[in-house]
Hints:
Layout: E1 2-6, E2 14-17, E3 27-36, H1 39-45, E4 58-59, E5 63-67, E6 73-77, E7 89-93, E8 97-99, H2 106-126, E9 134-138, H3 143-154, E10 159-164, H4 167-173, E11 177-180, H5 185-198, E12 202-205, H6 209-222, E13 229-233, H7 246-250, E14 254-258, H8 266-280, E15 289-292, H9 297-303, E16 309-313
Parallel strand pairs: 9-10, 9-12, 10-11, 12-13, 13-14, 15-16
Antiparallel strand pairs: 1-2, 1-4, 3-5, 3-7, 3-16, 5-6, 6-8
Amino acid sequence: MKAAIVFDLNQGPVYTETASPTPQPGQHIVHVQASAISHVVKSRASGKHYSFDGALPFITGIDGTGITADGQRVYFAFPPSPWGSMAEYVPVAIEHCVPLPENLDAATAAAMANPGMSAWAALVKRAQLQAGETVLVNGATGSAGQLAVQIARYLGAGKVIVTGRNLQVLAQLQADESVLLNDDATSITQQLSRLAANGIDVVVDYLWGNSASALLAALAKHTPGVSPVRFVQVGALSEGEITLPGAVLRSSPIQLMGSGIGSLSMADLLQATAEMLQAAVPGGFTIATTPARLEDVADAWARDDSRQRTVFVMP
């Protein structure tokens, strides 16, 4: 079969021929229909993601959509190493496959699954968002952040606040409040302080770095009362580390937590994905995609960015 294989962590995946998988007990062999590039996939392919096991070579891709041998349309995730989703066929544990809604096409589901899961898991599993609460999405202009805004509204958030560096996309999100992270530091601090004083219940953070530091400082200084502010760290698109004074946590009701592989079980992540996919059509969730052929993986890999989700569609 054909697959996109990582032989060298300093290079992208290579489209090549490899042996087809043989089913083991407790597995489906899934005929892949679509698989998307995500930040996790790119990070694992470079060996930088904490979930990478260090074994080379491996087929890239952690999830996708496809059809099982008995004809089921499924979303699947976390095939065992060295297998990956960017191949014609992939072995997947039966419990790592969930049915696809009939009215959700395979490519859209593949594009939406990872970023949608990150938002759903952060809001539902970790923050336990309640209807009417105020949500701030830090880094809302990427595909994951845009989905987080849609999902927060679907789950009943009373107010949605967004931050980002792309003014045009921020405007398109039609949030209740927005903060342009290209503004000067003084202006950003003033805006975040005002928003914190008005009350923020949940933060979904895709950036970390300076914006997260400024936001945490504003929450610590201006949050009214002692109701918990659940700050859920999902991604680090800005920087991987921050300096966090202990007083930020001592002086305020901030609950700082992460959401991702490890902080949630595989079962929890798959359940979050299944719930999100079932909500996608009734919720009207949308995601910008760039379709690509798997044989063009090298070019597509280089062109990929967070604004649109690159989806490999298999024949």
